[in-house]
Amino acid sequence: MTLERAAGLFRATFGVAPQAAASAPGRVNLIGEHTDYNGGPVLPVAVAARTVVAVGPAPDGLLEVISTRDGALARIAYREANPGSWGWALYLAGVMRELRAVGAVPDGGGARVAVASDLPAGAGLASSAALTVAAAKALSLLSGARLDPRPLAGVAFRAEHDHAGVACGIMDQMISALARPGRALLLECASLASRHIPVRARLLLVDTGVRRDLAAVAFNERRAECDAAVARLKLELPELVWLASWPAAWLPRLKRALAEPLKSRALHVVGETARTRFGAQLLARGRLKQFGELLFESHDSCRQLYDCSTPELDLVVATARRAGALGARLTGAGWGGAVLLLVDRRREARVVAAVQRAFRRAFGREPPVSVVQPSAGVRRERLR
Ligand code: GLA
After folding, report:
1. Span from the CA of 334 to the centroid of ligand 1 (angstroms)
2. What is the pLDDT of residues 112-125, one digit of tens each?
């Protein structure tokens, strides 16, 4: 369906058929929040909702982009400096530049791009990573280059980080590129070592509907705090490169060395790192009750130490816990977005009803609840 919409938009806009297409999914992180850019582990799954990118050639240096969401055609000279007016096309300009750097730019040097997606934007499901990963795949197909999932994730990451100026970590692009159906990805973000872990669990997503512009500002502020914590901790341990590598046994020393708020931020990162590695083992063994306890702990840490929660997220987590969910936590950057629930099927209806009732009473509306189906990563889409 989404493929037909992207290909149809391409034909309607450019008057010719697209020559290649690819799709990539959004993600939900099970545990390991704000650890990726600190060199720690993450444990995301890809969701079923995907972004499809259909592409064709264009004259050198020219990028023409359109999406079903924003029906206006943007024509940009993607090799020139970014003017503020490029909007979301900036992500695609970044992809083109990065593909150039790895010798996988489409023949002719330019491209036409049409995008369709069933991922909601701004809901904390990493829709921008789905866009850049799918675009990197489709555009590299146009060049005839075969880029494996990891180099694709690298192109997508640098497009967002270096060109679109979002100080994100590597989690979203890696899961969008490497995901397997029914599996979570344990990714160590310092070494990029990864392992696929079967998910035999009922997972739900509660979207609080809170979209905060504040998120980008607060996110960059947290990153700066983490860097400042590393700079200070290097006086204790000169070899320290990543905050997540601080030895868990040295927490008293960390507490003595850092003042607030750096102390709280660092305690979150070190604690979340241990929880995520342990959580991956529990999930692999199907120990869902203990895994769920770690999800609650992770949420408390995000709320109290990393200060990235909201009243809406907290209400959903607390209500789900009282109603018998095995685990619940905010997922993604925080400051809005969605809550992940881990439930026993026998308690599912009760938990969902309790969450919706409490949310309606507090905020006057019912949050949408959906099932998380761990899905496949980036793939080529065959055009008919
Ligand atoms: C955002 C970033 C990710 C990660 C999460 C927090 O989604 O894009 O790289 O840092 O926040 O875990």
Report:
1. 9
2. 999 999 998 777 89
